[in-house]
Amino acid sequence: MSIERRQEAGSIPFPEALGVLRAAAEETRLRILALLVEGELSVSDLTDILGQSQPRISRHLKLLVEAGLVERHREGAWAFFRLSDARAGLADPLLSGLDRTAPPLSEDRARLDAVRAQRADAATTFFARLAPKWDELRSLHVPEAIVEAAVLDALGDRPIGSLIDLGTGTGRMLGLLAPRAGRATGLDSSHAMLSVARANLERQGLARVDLRQGDIHAPPFARASFDLVVVHQVLHYLDDPARALRGAARLVAPGGRLLVVDFAPHELEFLRTGQAHRRLGFSAEQVSGWLAEAGLATVATRDLTPRESGQLTVTLWLAQDGLAQDGLAQDGLAQDGLADTDTEQPQRAVA
Question: What single string gives the DSSP state of each residue in 271-304?
Fold first, then answer.
């Protein structure tokens, strides 16, 4: 855990620090904290790893939450727990100094690996049932690798402090962008899809990404709390995409950015019934208009047109907060790396 994170946590009053240390000074609770360093876990995960009853684990977690060491969030009928940033200044040195090569921590880690393997198997089984539909959709547009390269090109080298991927699905965008972010969060309405995302991210060594269940129309986060908000291949599933973009825009921090990736207009009606698409793509002007209504200025758009006829064009929209001043939009274009030499399709700037 970084020095920056400890600095952000700030100082802790002596009585609170004493309570934190007392909460951690118990064998099971310290083992729980050591496990949560590896990423968020459910009560069920912890009972399997530690071999203790659910009421006992729940009681320990309650004390850790009350001490501010651990945060709890719900995901449907499930509850997940993660280390809290608020007490990182005290917890980080303690946890980083633990010897994890000897029992009981080495045994806990081995059981954690087994739990993660079971989770990955379950996610693979679930996704295998959906794979034919996903493969069919992927075959209709340019390869994912080209889309992902365009996303990285659009964002450029600008640092990403805090990132949220709305409608994260399998976590593909988080897997691409979380390594570049100081803090990464994924939101999805489906617990099953979050399970897939969690397994995929753990497989990539990104276990500390925060995954939350919630409504993209009303994301449960504070206003202006993310430097980069991503809405990737989500809008075409929604009845009210404009409302979703208004909710996304509220999350953009001052000077932050919103990246939208979706299909350009098309006429493949079978996607409504076969893939549950509510909208058959969006024009550049339509999405840019919604972004403007939400208070963001579109920096640029970019079309990724497939070489084979009959396939779908993927469009990227990059918008930014606070671009009212003349000339700032051009600075954003240079910063964000949307060059005119795109090999798939020339950039189309939007005024």
Answer: HHHHS--SS----HHHHHHHHHHTT-EEEEEEEE
Integer Cα distance of 295 and 290 in angstroms? 9
With a CB cutoff of 8 Å and minimum separation 6, the contacts of 272 are: 278, 280
Sheet holding 226-232, edge to edge: 210-213, 181-188, 160-166, 226-232, 252-263, 314-320, 297-304, 347-348
Whether omega for the bond prior to residue 104 falls within 30 degrees of 0, making it cis, is yes
Contacts of 326 (CB under 8 A, 6+ apart): none
3-state DSSP assignment of residue 225: coil
Backbone angles phi, psi at 112, to 5 degrees: -60, -45
* 345/307 Cα distance (integer angstroms): 10
Q: What does the pLDDT look like over 285-299, one tens digit per residue?
A: 999 999 999 999 999
Tokens 């990182």 -> residue: 88
| Beta carbons within 8 Å of 12's beta carbon, 6+ residues apart | 20, 87, 89, 90
The pLDDT tens digits for 118-147 are 877 775 675 566 655 665 666 677 888 999
Q: Would you call 82 helix, strand, or coil by DSSP?
A: strand
Sign of CA dihedral 235, 238, 241, 243: negative
